[in-house]
Amino acid sequence: MVALRGDAIKSETYFTPNKDGHKFASQLVEQISDLNKGKYLEELEISSKTDFCIGVAGYPEKHMEAPSLESDIHFLKEKIKLGADYIITQMFFDNKKFFEFQDICKKEGINVPIIPGLKPISTKKQLNILPHRFHCDLPEDLIKQIIKCKDNSQVKEVGIEWCIQQSKELKDAGVPFLHYYSMGKALNIKKIASNLF
Q1: Percent of the chain, pLDDT > 70?
Q2: Domains contained in the chain, CATH given
Q3: What pLDDT is recorded for position 184?
Q4: Rg of the chain over CA atoms, in angstroms?
Q5: Which of 140, 152, 159, 180 is in Cβ range 3.0-4.6 Å of 120 for a Cys bridge?
Q6: What backbone torsions phi and psi does residue 2 show, to the nearest 5 degrees?
């Protein structure tokens, strides 16, 4: 189970939880960990424990609401202490940022698997949307390649090839798994996977 706090709705600047809802993902991690111990929110006559493997989000370029990467890592560490078993990263397009994030996590004593999150770009419009919505930088070389494309079918090919190269480098570095953000479009992910596995 991946324990995510969720995003602010369009009318909010910052996330606001529902009444009696969790303000932070760490609270959800703690609740799921409690379920694994047989402790439920309400006094229910259930004696069985759950057996959830808990994943959490990590941000190689820091969470947009975090004042610094150091602060963000502090709260990531808290989620691990509360019972998270692995980390899936926010999408990134420069593997150097992932490797730096991985090194910082190790120095801070975070030893759970860190799974890189990758997204193949498929439209020119995403040059503006992805950095804005997901607070990630795009490498200049990738931007230049996409700008040269005549249409989105060419952009899609550039995005697939970029993602394949990212994936190969990450696999060669020994990452445990790769996670792809398909966002409802699986054909480009299929093409990437067929080149790798």
Answers
A1: 91
A2: 25-196 (3.20.20.220)
A3: 79
A4: 19
A5: 159
A6: -100, 120
